[in-house]
């Protein structure tokens, strides 16, 4: 694989600002009472759709540290085909997919919006939408840079 310029390293001030945004959104999710495991599922699913190996790797490890099962992580790309995910998780994943696929679909359908707002408060919806936005930002930086995976013990 061709080595590429690492965008987050090459413009550290912008990287710090995205990190600050990330921290703000993480705090908003916590303040809204969102389950951290649910937020990790959102991050994993967006990263799968965007093909960001670095982020898939990081957030699957984070989800496991929060107690997420390997089975649910493995089946996340096929969440619609299983009964393993709660109504709230399904709504959050539908929103994540719609937001991630905006370049293709150019819409977050009303049924997805209605599904999410039926099971989450406004504050939780806002935090979820921002979480999807931030992970998509990280994905775009990681994929464009072909950010290498960290060395971790197997």
Automatic annotation (TrEMBL):
Transit peptide keyword on record: no
Domain Carboxymuconolactone decarboxylase-like: 27-97
MF-aspect GO terms: peroxiredoxin activity
Keyword Signal: no
InterPro entries, alphabetized: AhpD-like, AhpD_core, CMD-like
Top-level taxonomic group: Bacteria
Swiss-Prot/TrEMBL keywords: Oxidoreductase, Peroxidase
Protein name, as recorded: AhpD family alkylhydroperoxidase
């Amino acid at each position: 694989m061709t080595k590429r310029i690492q965008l987050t390293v090459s413009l550290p001030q912008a990287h710090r600002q995205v990190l600050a945004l990330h921290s703000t959104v993480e705090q908003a999710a916590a303040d809204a009472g969102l389950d951290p495991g649910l937020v990790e599922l959102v991050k994993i699913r967006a990263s799968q759709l965007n093909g960001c190996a670095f982020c898939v790797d990081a957030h699957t490890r984070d989800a496991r540290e929060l107690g997420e099962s390997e089975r649910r992580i493995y089946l996340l790309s096929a969440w619609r085909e299983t009964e393993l995910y709660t109504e709230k998780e399904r709504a959050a994943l539908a929103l994540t997919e719609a937001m991630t696929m905006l370049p293709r679909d150019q819409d977050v359908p009303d049924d997805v919006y209605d599904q999410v707002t039926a099971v989450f408060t406004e504050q939780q919806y806002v935090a979820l939408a921002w979480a999807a936005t931030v992970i998509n930002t990280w994905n775009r930086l990681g994929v464009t840079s072909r950010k290498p995976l960290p060395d971790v013990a197997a």
